[in-house]
Each structure stands twice: as C-alpha cells, then as structure tokens.
Amino acid sequence: MEYLKNSYKTLKHLIAIPLVSSLIIPLLIADIWVEIYHRICFPLYKIPCIKRKAYIKIIDRAKLKYLNFWQKIYCMYCGYGNGVVNYWTKIADETERYWCGIKHEKDNNFIESESQKDFAEYNDEESFNKKYKI
Questions:
Q1: How far apart are CA 111 and CA 120, in angstroms?
Q2: Would residue 29 count as lying in a domain?
C-alpha cells in the first residue's frame, strides 16, 4: 500500500513539474517588462522606486544542507516567483495610488488591498478632488 502511495505521489509530481516549471518563461518576460516600466515611469511621476531586493530573495534556502538538489532549485524558483509577484504588486499599488486613489465600491466578495486603505472613498467626489487637487 505504501508503494502505491509513493508511486501516486511521484506520478503527480511528474505531471505537475513541467507545468510549474513552464511558468518561469512568462514570469521572466513580465519581470523585464514591469522593471522597464518601473525604472522609466516612476521617476517621471516622481514616485520613489521600489527596492527590488526587499521583495525577491532566491538564494537563502538553497544554502540549506538538508535539501536535495531539486528541492533547492524549486525553493529558489518559489522565492523568485512569489517575490517578484509581490514586487509587482507594490509597483501596481504605487501606480494606482498615483493615478486613481479611489476605493472600489463595497463588496463582501472583494478583498481590498492594504494599499487602498487611505484612498478616497468610492463615489466621494469631494474627497477625490482634495486628494487630486482638481
């Protein structure tokens, strides 16, 4: 029975690994594109650039001696993937704050971003005009 459980686990991993690994290509392409946007547009908007290294840390877990080679590779992959998406989120948050700091309409099915807490209330023209000096 234990053999079947291990075989099933191995089969699941063999199916998933190519799919998981293939995400590196769009991640890298999007990372380059977002970084170009960030480095060109933020200075134009006079928004301070986001510190990339505060969000992306890929090497630390690969130093752990108790992980095998593949575990280290996937720890680096996850450190990069999750870090870069968090980094993009911060860039998107600052962009949204600059262009349109208005909260969304209240909806129990929507999780408001932490960055939107100080935005103008939805449908509050006076608050919007104060924030954006219109």
A1: 17
A2: no
